[in-house]
Amino acid sequence: MAEINGTAKLPSSGNKQGEVGERLWAGSMTAIIVLLLAVVVYTSAHWGFHPPSQVETIDSTSLHKGGEFSEPNLGTVIAPDGSALVRVVALQYAFVPSCLVVPAGKPVTIRLVSADAVHGFLVQGTNVNAMVVPGYVTTVHTTFNELGERLMPCHEFCGVGHHAMWARVRVVEPSSFPTDADKQKAVNCAS
After folding, report:
1. How far apart are CA 22 and CA 19, in angstroms?
2. pTM
3. What digits encode the pLDDT tens for the residues 168-188?
4. Alpha-carbon distance 67 to 61, whole Å?
5. What is the pLDDT of residue 45?
6. Assuming Cys at both sites, which of 23, 84, 123, 153 could form a disulfide with 166, CB separation 3.0 to 4.6 Å?
7. CA separation for the pair 149, 130 (Å, rounded)
């Protein structure tokens, strides 16, 4: 029997092409793994310093005291360029206002905040879908091209009344909105 020690070499298989192929494969896989790790490290560092979206914070405990999300400012306002700005507050278990009016075919910016818990919202039949986290302003840009009414339910469990938390988005003709942005107030379905 042959003695096995630390200096013994395994016998060659005699297939030089196979050995070259295996070394090429092993080198390629090592290079791919190193590349993937480099991508993970780079993206982690890059996005750690530069978040992927605009991060805007707000004090959720003082929404009712005034500012952008006080009650008179909630709803839709039309800017001089014809675009719409919609402000909404999500709270257990309602969206305020509960019915939003937006113009068809115009750019719409929806800004939402949460007063209490993590909520989600989506406008059915569109690609509008986001989470609303306390302390942050969620901003979504979209255009509604079809007239009609769409449901806007909360899609993040927020407590025992979650099943009843929904609002409506009414898409109307742009001529239904005032054009003088200085004199108009925020409007909703009740306006």
Report:
1. 5
2. 0.69
3. 999 999 887 655 555 567 888
4. 12
5. 78
6. 153
7. 19
